[in-house]
Write a structure and sequence with these properties.
The chain is of the alpha+beta class. Bound molecules: uridine-5'-diphosphate (UDP) and magnesium ion.
Length: 199
């Protein structure tokens, strides 16, 4: 990267979730990030345990209630009664349920964990991933290119939405998630041949 880019080079964590690996899309998805100029500085494939994936998400009361509220909004949009669907209207209880669905999902098969480095990496990676729900994600994004599932489908089947990728959304998430998946392992330091052109 040029010296001028130094202040805006970030690192971020990406997971290729079990559906992406099982569908043979790992290479294609990694290529989306690499082509934009994001550099792989750490990469591993793991078969995570339930306990390990449970500690991937923040799991704060705010985060759990937030997941519950999103699910309640989906029910409302569809004119569905949460009591009939899941037996409660309590965002915490519903958030715990979605958390459990996510644990089932992320521990259901091998996951590829990657640390990318590059210009505005956190925002750029989120943009490439697209909106959380593939049905709403831009068609050119990763989630919008490889799926059209939605919260409606996830809630109806009582499963997490299989949206292929996870990406950290804040510097705090980057710090927690890179430490969680890579521990004290140091990312590789090297130059890509096109760095001066991309910066
Ligand atoms: N999720 C779900 N149902 C929902 C909301 C989220 O199954 O109503 C799953 C989905 O797989 C998502 C993950 O929970 O990727 C974490 O949710 P978050 O809101 O953090 O979305 P992301 O950051 O992955 O876009
Ligand atoms: Mg998130």
């Amino acid at each position: 990267m040029s010296p001028n880019a130094a202040g805006i080079v970030e690192r971020t964590l990406v997971l290729l979730k079990p559906d992406a690996v099982a569908r043979g899309l790992a290479g294609q998805i990694l290529a989306r990030f690499e082509t934009v100029g994001l550099k792989i500085v750490a990469l591993k494939m793991v078969m995570p345990t339930r306990d390990f994936v449970a500690r991937h998400y923040p799991n704060t009361p705010e985060w759990i209630a937030g997941m519950g509220k999103k699910t309640l909004e989906t029910y409302k949009d569809r004119g569905l009664d949460p009591i009939a669907e899941v037996g409660t209207t309590d965002p915490m209880k519903i958030g715990e349920m979605v958390k459990a669905w996510n644990i089932d999902y992320l521990s259901s098969g091998p996951v590829v964990a990657v640390i990318f480095e590059g210009l505005h990496a956190i925002t750029t990676v989120r943009k490439l991933c697209g909106a959380t729900m593939p049905f709403s994600a831009d068609p050119g994004s990763i989630r919008g290119s490889y799926s059209s599932t939605s919260a409606v489908v996830g809630n109806a089947t009582k499963r997490a939405v299989r949206n292929l990728v996870h990406a950290s959304s804040t510097p705090e998430e980057v710090a927690h998630e890179t430490a969680h998946w890579f521990g004290p392992e140091k990312p590789c330091v090297y130059r890509r041949a096109d760095e001066d052109i991309l910066a």
